[in-house]
């Protein structure tokens, strides 16, 4: 029997803490990894919540870039499927009598042999609006929200309108959260989110640059400089006494620390769309069984990385060829005109 978390190696203690992972018929799912590929530096940058305004900033190079929000639809369907179909019951967590999916359930080993399931998008779409790249990647696992301070399972109340209020039974920390506008349009069964990026009761600090490369955090109320503390800490303004939180993305930008991801949780209602597909006998050709071992998973990740790099090189060559053809055509026309 394990004595520590397989993911973060935190000891369970003499009496491991447990939580139901449910709110009525809804299920909590932990997004353990989430990132996208930056168009500038080509590296993967973490996302700490639902960026649904069509714009994201790379935490590695600082480039602000367009983001195709439709990517969340496919990702949230996968997250919902993981929460609904995971083990130890091979029928998942919303079994329907007389409609077995155990034989074809792609996530039945989560919670038994594996802790999470990855979903990677790597698509370039050309349509009337131009070229759109979809590179969103997420890993999901069944899991109850934890207190940021003491890692205790939180007591959470949801209001049915996208809002949630949490309280830690151990340290008493309270927080309020809300889904961003448009999130439920991407996945209607989405009920709530617990993520620092979507916290309502504490405004986030402002990140300001002097134009010469120096970056500082400032009070969101009066604009005064705030002391550098740590990620997720609360900073109190010495002038107006306003209290603001320091999001992970702001901390990494100011401190110069390597960008890292902080897990967040979503609450999804009822059986997943994937369960309905399995009941109809539909199978996804791109939905393999969970990796049989960490070594196999690592090899798969390496192969995916090589494929992405090859695709980037191919697109670079194609774009360079097109540009060169245009330049040659312009020069030929210029010579003919002369």
Q: Spans of 5+ residues with little confidence (pLDDT < 50)?
A: 288-293
Helix content: 10-25%
Number of domains: 2
Order of SSEs? EEEEEHEEEEEEEHEEEEEHEHH
How much is the radius of gyration in Å?
Answer: 23 Å
Q: Report on the biggest sheet.
A: 7 strands, antiparallel
Shape label: globular
The number of helices is: 5
Distance between the termini: 83 Å
Mean pLDDT: 84
Question: What is the number of E strands?
Answer: 18
SS content category: alpha+beta
Tell me the strand percentage band: 15-25%
Commentary on this structure:
With about 350 residues, the protein is of the alpha+beta class. The protein folds into two domains: about 20-195 and about 260-285, no CATH class; about 290-338. Helices cover about 25% and strands about 25% of the residues. The protein contains five helices and 18 strands. The strands form six sheets. Strands 1, 2, 3, 6, 9, 13 and 18 form a seven-stranded antiparallel beta sheet that branches. Strands 10-11-12 form a three-stranded antiparallel beta sheet, with no helix packed on it. The longest helix is centred in the C-terminal third of the chain and has 44 residues, at about 295-335. Residues about 290-295 have low confidence and may be disordered.
Write out key terms for the chains shown.
single chain, about 350 residues, alpha+beta
In short:
The protein is α+β, with helices and mostly antiparallel strands and 338 residues long. The chain contains five helices and 18 strands. A hairpin with a 6-residue loop joins β11 and β12 (174-178).
